Amino acid sequence: MLTERQQRILGLVAEEYLRSGKPVGSKALAARPDVEWSASTIRNELAALERDGYLTHPHTSAGRVPTDRGYRLYADTLLASGKIKNVPARRFEITRLRQEVEEAMRETTQALSRMTDLLAVATAPPPNTAHIHRIEVLRLQPRAAMVVVIASNGAVTKRVFSFEKALDPGLVEWAASYLNERLAGLSLGARMIGDRYFEPGLSQVERDFLGRLQDAFLNLEEEAEEDLYVEGAANLLSSEHAPDIPELESLMSALERRANLLRVLRSALDRPSVFMWIGAENPAPELRSVSVVGANYGLGYRNLGAVGVVGPLRMDYATAIASVREAAGELSRFFESVYEPR
């Protein structure tokens, strides 16, 4: 276990290296007005921290930089201190008037990427948590109609149906209103969809038309895809961050294979709050040259998804933690309204 002095020195090395990008030496630390130890004392502690795996020196110079283990202790100390300043909620305020999940996810990742200057990611709620949000019935041609089912997690399924005779526009408009009234709010895999589909008292024309459309509501849960939203990949290619990511090409390839990153983020759904994977801690080998800082969002009784940032080990962890925490909070508030019982 580290002494209080060693923890303080490790924190100072991390902060200075995050700021300057240059290895930090004992003389530089001793010259700080808030440090009371001599350069020789600091030098001994730096050597001890290196032996224990918290620091390393990339060159023959005496300057040190944090290792994955050092960054982990530094980030954990930040979280435990309670001194991370909250990000103003208005920076993540979602346009609630639209109430569209896809737009909310995009707004959040775009804002998160801008605020942190990192790559931002977010997962939409999985299909098994979603319900029917809205149904549209559209007359495409005189004898063709399309049914669009929009789920509360942003998933959209579409089915086109052909008919032998020209469709009555009024019947199409009525079907859209009827289906929303009867089915909106039901879970995608609910057996109740079939039970509630036909209301007693329907005319034969109405029943026949609805019967032709019924296939649009079969297997909705299986057809709904889990979405991963990614914004700000160009940030990692910038002159500021690219030199700090040794496996940049591998990382960009991993981002193209979104299924892997989605799976990694899904593995953290049981975490109660902010989570981090630093360097070698990352579950996916292609992410082991970067850090992932994320937070889960959801309802009071269940996490629905995660939002986070991906960046070099030398990132501003305080800003990253505060930003993903506020982004997750805003998404939680949004989904509380979207998943509100009907």
Secondary-structure element series? HHHEEHHEEEEHHHHEHHHEEEH
Biggest pleated sheet: 5 strands, antiparallel
CATH architecture heading of the largest domain: 2-Layer Sandwich
Spans with pLDDT under 50 lasting ≥5 residues?
none
Shape: elongated
* CATH fold group of the largest domain: Beta-Lactamase
CATH class of the largest domain: Alpha Beta
* Gyration radius, in Å: 26 Å
Proportion in β-strands? 15-25%
Distance between the termini: 53 Å
Number of helices: 13
Strand order of the largest sheet: 7-3-10-9-8
How many domains would you count in the coordinates?
3
Mean pLDDT: 87
Strands, count: 10
Helix content: 40-55%
CATH superfamily of the largest domain: GAF domain
Class per helix and strand makeup: alpha+beta
